[in-house]
Amino acid sequence: MSYIEVNNLKKDFIVKKKREKGKLLREKDTVNALKGVSFSVDEGELVGYIGPNGAGKSTTVKILSGILTPDSGEVNVGGVVPWKDRKQHVKNIGVVFGQRSQLWWDVPIIDSYNLLKDIYRIPQASYEERLHELAGALDLEPLMRTPLRLLSLGQRMRAELCGSLLHRPKLLFLDEPTIGLDAVSKLALRDFLKWENKEYGTTIMLTTHDMEDIAALCSRVMVLGHGQKLFDGKLPDLLERFDTVRNVSVKYAVEPDLKLPEGVICNKTEDGLELSYEPSKLPTSKLLSILQDAGNIRELTLQPENTDHLIAAMYKELDL
Amino acid sequence: MRAYISVFKMRLRMELQYRGAMIGGILCQMFFGLVLVAVYRALYDSKPQSLPIESVVTYVWLQQAFFRMMFGTDSDLLDKIRSGDISYDMCRPINMYGFYYARIVAMKLMGSLMRAVPMLTLAAFLPKGWGISLPASLPGFLLAIPALLLGLLCVCALENITVAFTMRTLDSRGMQGLLTMLMMTFSGNVLPLTLFPDSWQKAITFLPYAQLLDAPIRLYTGVYELSAALGVYALQIFWIIVLIALGNVMWNANKKRMIVQGG
User: Quick one: pLDDT at residue B262?
Assistant: First the structure.
């Protein structure tokens, strides 16, 4: 059996609308946040969970971490139903909500860690070893005596991550952990997550809008939209499915005599020509030879596949 | 248990950092104390009451000195509920009621000690009839201390009920405003409960609000006989149990319907 089993998970939220003129009571709207989501995750997997804003990602994470009770459906995490055996369940999980904070604002972060030690009843020796290890990996040693409010966003995120991993959780939920981080911090965070996953076999579920996070970390990706699971598989497979249109820009020494096959869209700009084509219908090599035959090329750029564009195309195609 | 002691100590230390707030609080409470004393002296000048003025003035100073214990709120905690940071506490292997109760006790204990000690010292140096008087008797003073501690536990249970309301309404101000008004009236903060009509005394001293600070003050000023102390403690303990039970019921109900909004 898999470590996480989710079966037909449903959750509705009732939202009260603004009272309309002339009506006594406010009307209520039901938002189907999750409309029957199923999946399973094996121990040690690193899964990316993506989808547009409001797709139900955070709702799933909240249910899996025992904060929220679903309307129906079954969830089993390591043999426990999260919202029923909350205390038992939460001992084994770690959570990082990218936009919230678990550390105390006005006190040195080491004090927050000491409190977490007591909350999770971590034995002193084990705690010291783990803290030393995490502080080294996350470069926190010099910041231990600094109050949280003085840390930069990147430092704070590293500090939060350390707090969530002190008790050696078997399962880690990350809700947009790289939000607002600079490139260096992002890379460091990704390296650390890879290391933690490899070293301890920690199962990690990551929700993000940063496709590079997914590309760098996750062997598997799940796409959620409108409360339903739309894709579950490897990232390259996902990209292939939606890699429909590519762009080439080309600049000639003299105006060329260009005869393009059907299906290629050509736009003239100040800098030359912008072409877009579908690689599935016209192979890239064939297009290139047509371009070369047409005249003396001064500059040619093949735009690399951009994950963000692909995902945007996918959301559009799936009508999200 | 370790987690609760640990959060208690942490909140104590945090409270100690807010020295600016402490100085501001002392100045504000000294001002209010002087104004109230002047008002009661004027009242006594025109129409003396059966209770000696010294007793009323002492009552006022003790109320002002322990203002933080009565009306101080853990704004950090309320912010956590508003911002949703509370979701972290929800995924910890702890009892949330107990965890927050420990926090509130620490905040109110340290906050009021930091203010009460300098304030009562200042009030003791004021001229006779303006400042605080010595306790009626040494045993009365000693008996007032456990009553004060029980009062602290009681006010924290009340505060945790306010927090439980805040979890429903998200904004603490509405319910807090209402509960604060009740508290100001029935705890003796505005008008010493000892000055209420005799026919009201029985009902008013039974309410939970009278257990917080009024009961220990009456032991201190000798309005309550020494022999009444055990009865006072019993009533305090009764209310602590009732309020903690009520708070727990509210918290558990909240947990079931709780939704942390937003992503």
Answer: 55
